[in-house]
Each structure stands twice: as structure tokens, then as C-alpha cells.
Specification:
The chain is of the alpha/beta class. The protein contains twelve helices and nine strands. The strands form two sheets. A seven-stranded parallel sheet has the order 3-2-1-4-5-6-8, with helices on both faces.
């Protein structure tokens, strides 16, 4: 069976390829990337590297020739992603690929997160086709809090407007292993997985973890969205990024990331990595 991974040079894609290499042989893995030079380490592992950007429909169709299963890793060019993902799905259909696995976002049908609409549109497009598909709704990465480690070390504080909202984040490595499990499973799988860490934490819990990692007390500045915007403006962040951060915190506050289903630990056969462990590795 030949398994392709798109965005294979990204942080998640690289880990997925490694997780596949632990389960199958390099000649069964195809890395679909847009940048050949960046893919040299993948080629060195014996993986077949094919070049196709998400905007290049002809290249995508050629890259998916002879593929049995593909992991479509969502892109990171906001505003362009629905069409880009559709391009990959159309190439899947053109090549009769037997299954596509898509990395989506938690509870996309109700989520208010700024990232949700393009994921929902992609899921809806998949559902409108006859293609066998599996959706991995990945919760937040622990690694999204790398900058919180730096800030906590410098200021002893973590800023949020998420109130008591909880985040069931997990390590990228755990999501990568789950994707590899699904891609190599021959038995029945579900249509939609809500993949999340075993623990849904509040920002007080995050501060406790950060405190352990940076070795000094860390407090939470839990403010309103307006206050958060003003503080972030005063330290020079641009309006677009501030809107994204406050939008994410508003989503967290209303529970968009709180669902700890246990499905991730169940797929990877072990408890998910605690956030404190990932934060320690990032410090
Ligand atoms: N769950 C979360 O917390 C979270 C956080 C951030 C992002 N995400 C989503 O999960 C995806 C994977 O995460 P990640 O950490 O691996 O992100 P990443 O390291 O930023 O990787 C994004 C990948 O998308 C590829 N890509 C972007 N635009 C493309 C295009 N037009 N054509 C082909 N490839 C394109 C990039 O190619 P290059 O390698 O050539 O740059 C890169 O490999 C992200 O793209 C995003 O959709 C989720």
C-alpha cells in the first residue's frame, strides 16, 4: 500500500513521515511537498518525494498517481485554504485514491475559532464527494505555547482573555502518531475523530506548568478582550495578529477547545504527553 503525506516538510508532516517509517517501509511512503530543497532530509530517508503546491492542480494530479491513501495536512495560507484543499481532494478523485485523511479543527460545526470556517468548508466538500474519508479534528498543539514559556521567563506572567475556558491541547508528536495509525489501519475506522489531550487545562493550570518550567512563580493576567487588545497593541503587535489572538481566546472561553475525548490516547495506545513535558522541551 502506498501512502502519501502532503505538506510533508511542515512540522506535523515531518513527524507523520517518521511515525509512518516506524510502521512501514520507505518505499511505501510518498512525501508531497512544494519545495524540493526543504525535502532533502525526507529523500535521504528513502521516501519518494513529489513536488506539488496546493495551488497547482496539474502537479497535484500527477503527484497522487498510484497512491492508495493520502493524508491531506491543512495548509497555513489563511483565506486560500478552502480552494487549496479542494484542489487536493479533486486530485484524489481523479486518481481514484481509496482514502483521504484530513487534519481539521475541533468541533468545527459549532466552533467560533477564527481557523474553523475553512476547515468546515473542507469537511463539507469532502462530505459532498463519494471519496472514502476520515477527519482528524486535531485540538491545539502544546507547541503553540512556546512563546508563553519565553514570556513567563521574562515577565512571570501569562496574558489571556479566555477566562476559565479549557484547552485540551496535545503534543504534535501525539497527533502525528495518531495520523500514522489511521493511515496504516486496515480494519474499520471512524469517519470523524475529535483528537485531543487527555487533560483540558485552564490558564491557571498553564501558569502552574510554566512556573515549574521556568523555575519561578507565574501568575495569570486574565483580562477582558478589549484590555488584552490594548496591552498587545502597546507592545507593538499588529492588528491582524491581535484579532487572531483575541478571537482564539474568545473561542476558548466559550468551550471551543475543551473537549477531551480520550480518542487520541486510545489511538496511540498510551496517555497523551502532558503539556508540562512539551513546555520543558521548548524552554
Ligand atoms: N492544531 C493546531 O494547534 C495548529 C496550529 C497551527 C497550525 N495548524 C494547522 O495544521 C497544519 C500543520 O501544522 P504544522 O505545525 O505542520 O504547520 P507548519 O509547520 O506551518 O506547516 C505547514 C505546511 O503547509 C505547507 N503549505 C502551506 N501552503 C502550501 C501550499 N500552497 N502548497 C503546498 N504546501 C503548503 C507548508 O509547506 P512548506 O514546508 O514548503 O512551508 C508546510 O509544510 C497547519 O498548516 C495548519 O493548517 C494547527
Amino acid at each position: 500500500m502506498t501512502i502519501a503525506v502532503t505538506a510533508a516538510t511542515g512540522q506535523l508532516g515531518t513527524l507523520v513521515v517518521d511515525a509512518l517509517l516506524a510502521r512501514t517501509t520507505p518505499d511505501q511512503i510518498v512525501a508531497i511537498v512544494r519545495d524540493a530543497a526543504k525535502a532533502e532530509p525526507l529523500a535521504a530517508k528513502g521516501v519518494d518525494v513529489r513536488i506539488a503546491g496546493y495551488d497547482d492542480t496539474a502537479a497535484l494530479e500527477a503527484a497522487l498517481a498510484g497512491i492508495d491513501r493520502v493524508l491531506l495536512i491543512s495548509g497555513n495560507e489563511f483565506g486560500k485554504r478552502t480552494q487549496q484543499h479542494r484542489n487536493v481532494i479533486d486530485a484524489v478523485i481523479a486518481n481514484d485514491v481509496s482514502r483521504v485523511v484530513y487534519t481539521s479543527a475541533p468541533q468545527v460545526d459549532t466552533s467560533t475559532l477564527p481557523v474553523a470556517p475553512e476547515h468546515l468548508e473542507t469537511e463539507q466538500y469532502l462530505a459532498s464527494t463519494a471519496v472514502d474519508h476520515v477527519v482528524l479534528r486535531n485540538n491545539w498543539y502544546h507547541e503553540n505555547y512556546a512563546s508563553a514559556v519565553e514570556t513567563a521567563a521574562a515577565t512571570g506572567s501569562v496574558l489571556t482573555s479566555a477566562g476559565d475556558g479549557r484547552v485540551a491541547s496535545a503534543a504534535r508528536q501525539d497527533f502525528a502518531e495518531a495520523a500514522a495509525v489511521i493511515l496504516t489501519t486496515d480494519g474499520p475506522v471512524k469517519r470523524v475523530y475529535e483528537l485531543a489531550g487527555d487533560v483540558a487545562w485552564t490558564h491557571d493550570d498553564l501558569a502552574a506548568a510554566l512556573s515549574e518550567v521556568v523555575g519561578k512563580p507565574v501568575s495569570v493576567a486574565n483580562v477582558s478582550a478589549d484590555e488584552q487588545s490594548a496591552i498587545l497593541t502597546s507592545v507593538g503587535l499588529d492588528a491582524g495578529l491581535i484579532g487572531f489572538i483575541t478571537g482564539v481566546d474568545a473561542g476558548i472561553k466559550q468551550g471551543d477547545l475543551e473537549l477531551a475525548t480520550g480518542e487520541l490516547s486510545s489511538l496511540i495506545g498510551r496517555p497523551t504527553t502532558p503539556i508540562v513535558e512539551t513546555l520543558r522541551s521548548l524552554a
